[in-house]
Amino acid sequence: MSEPDARPWSERLRSAVAGRGRLCVGIDPHPELLDAWGLPHTPVGLETFAHTCVEAFGGEVAVVKPQVAFFEAYGSAGIAVLERTLADLVELGALALADAKRGDIGSTMAAYAGAWLGDGSPLAADAVTLSPYLGFDALAPALDVAARTSRGVFVLARTSNPEGGDLQRSVGSGGVGVAQSVVAAAAQRNRETADLVGLVVGATRGHGLDLGEFEGPVLAPGVGAQGATASDLASVFPDHRELLLPNVSRSVLRAGPDPAALREAAVRTRDEIEAALR
Ligand SMILES: O=c1ccn([C@@H]2O[C@H](COP(=O)(O)O)[C@@H](O)[C@H]2O)c(=O)[nH]1
């Protein structure tokens, strides 16, 4: 097993994106995809699926995002597969982003922080997704651990699903929209530690946010199966292209189970994204 990369998160992320492009590809072992790949709905099927994805993407794509829910569905055996998947991605030089969407009161958040971002934790990833809807400040333990261990976080701001709009666009007591206040808090924290806090902003529609003050990474899910296209990215994110990480899961994964075909689908998608953002 290789040593953890001690460079600051900002440097690790920027060098991965410079070398491999901006795609974040997902490992989302949906039951329908297991069927399509001829795999059983068991931990063995899950492991074969995840291992094939690691083999296809790990040496090629900058950021790979296992969706934790599909591993949790198999209980402790699924979590063990997730642990191995995260470790194997790092061995191949990809950044592993655990899509766990954690968020809780501060004291519990400290436990989540240790689990997903702590050195030596079996589930430690390079970055994790967080939900700020128990308060952005409640995420502080995770931000502190990430800063200390050269890892990153991506905080939900304006999600890709249509149901998120009512809550995320609503206006808080300071007269600022809820999602916009997440953007402001993230920008403020990044003045201390560059790029530490990324945002999740869906690519599926105009997000209506002012990202002008925010210089960190933006994970943009919704390309492919949810309807957004690579060519939508430039108009949805007109001023935020350097560290934009469009996430594509199902529309690439449907190219499996042949690892070469999967890799080719990821590379084609990445090239489309790079051409659209040029
Ligand atoms: O706003 C959000 C936040 C996270 N996701 C996650 O991204 C992938 C998208 O998968 P596709 O197959 O490309 O639709 C999935 O893991 C979601 O849970 C999101 O879609 N939107």
From TrEMBL:
Any coiled-coil regions, as ranges: none
SMART domains associated with the record: OMPdecase
Catalytic reactions of this protein: orotidine 5'-phosphate + H(+) = UMP + CO2
EC number: 4.1.1.23
Active site: K101 (proton donor)
Xref: Gene3D superfamilies: Aldolase class I
UniProt key word Lyase: yes
GO molecular function: orotidine-5'-phosphate decarboxylase activity
All residue ranges annotated as the Orotidine 5'-phosphate decarboxylase domain in the record: 22-265
Alphabetical UniProt keywords: Decarboxylase, Lyase, Pyrimidine biosynthesis
UniProt entry tagged with the keyword Membrane: no
Residue ranges of the TM segments: none
Enzyme class: lyase
Pathway: Pyrimidine metabolism; UMP biosynthesis via de novo pathway; UMP from orotate: step 2/2
Source taxon at top rank: Bacteria
GO BP: 'de novo' pyrimidine nucleobase biosynthetic process; 'de novo' UMP biosynthetic process
Family stated for the protein in its record: Belongs to the OMP decarboxylase family. Type 2 subfamily.
Name assigned to this protein: Orotidine 5'-phosphate decarboxylase
Originating organism: Rhodococcus rhodnii LMG 5362
Gene expressing this chain: pyrF
